[in-house]
Specification:
The protein is α/β, with parallel strands linked by helices. About 35% of the residues lie in helices and about 30% in strands. It contains nine helices and twelve strands. The longest helix has 17 residues. The chain starts with 6 loop residues before the first strand and ends with a strand.
């Protein structure tokens, strides 16, 4: 793959518990950080309920619009875990027992514990590739460019490393954060000028509150370190001119 290839992905968070606020989504951050490190840029994140038609329609849109789609949630043993069935329907594939997944879970549980509810976790689209789970046995799965992961954050995190070889990324996305003791309005015009002069670099500003004082973190992101360095020097130029205190650079 050429060095200039841009590879993108969408994240689809599935679950009523996220929409209701009962559960906080930390999976977006885990997946995005990992994807950036292997050169895949996240272009979109959607959070949708456990409704079959919504999952199918959203998945069909995203899998055609992006190189990769990562779904989280809805692959457990309960009645509202309908992601695997919905993925089967989205791809027009048969929904069936995955023999390898069955063997893994049968060996994982003590005799008599692999009940009907848990057996639901081995139903997947036909010919799905398994995503192995080093934490709790139950595997995720992948069909073409769609990767389906569990919603439990610690389990999801443990499964990402094993996926690295399955994803073809571009150049890793590098970043530099400059934290300043200032407010956004004080640097807005100067930062806009730097962004206009460096259109192919992503520059964001994010207010923070630390030790009772306001500040702004400027985050510069690019696949090219030299472009980050140019933006950095332009930002430091106006920061020094305005005599703004630099809290941290990383």
């Amino acid at each position: 793959m050429s060095k200039k290839t841009k590879v993108n992905a969408a994240i689809l968070i599935i679950g009523n518990e996220i929409l209701s606020g009962r559960t906080q989504d930390t999976n977006t951050s885990s997946i995005s950080t990992w994807l950036n490190s292997i050169g895949v840029k996240v272009g979109e994140v959607r959070i949708i309920p456990d409704i079959e038609k919504t999952i199918i329609d959203t998945l069909n849109f995203l899998r055609n619009a992006y190189d990769y789609v990562f779904t989280t949630g809805g692959i457990g043993p309960t009645h509202d875990d309908i992601t695997a069935l919905s993925v089967s329907k989205a791809f027009g594939l048969k929904y069936e027992i995955h023999k390898e997944a069955y063997k893994i879970l049968e060996a994982y549980y003590k005799p008599g514990e692999f009940n009907e509810g848990r057996q639901k976790m081995v139903w997947m689209p036909e010919k799905a590739n398994l995503i192995l789970n080093p934490t709790s046995g139950a595997p995720g799965f992948n069909v073409k460019n769609v990767f389906c992961l569990p919603g439990v954050p610690s389990i999801l995190k443990s499964m990402l490393g094993g996926l690295t070889n399955s994803i073809i990324g571009g150049d890793p996305i590098l970043s530099l954060t400059i934290s300043l003791r200032t407010v956004e309005s004080e640097i807005a015009n100067s930062l806009t000028k730097v962004q206009k002069d460096n259109k192919d670099v992503e520059i964001g500003s994010y207010p923070f509150f630390q030790a009772g004082k306001l500040g702004v973190s400027i985050v510069i992101r690019s696949e090219d370190q030299s472009k980050i360095d140019i933006c950095n020097s332009q930002i430091l130029e106006f920061v020094n001119k305005k005599k703004i205190e630099i809290v941290e650079k990383q």
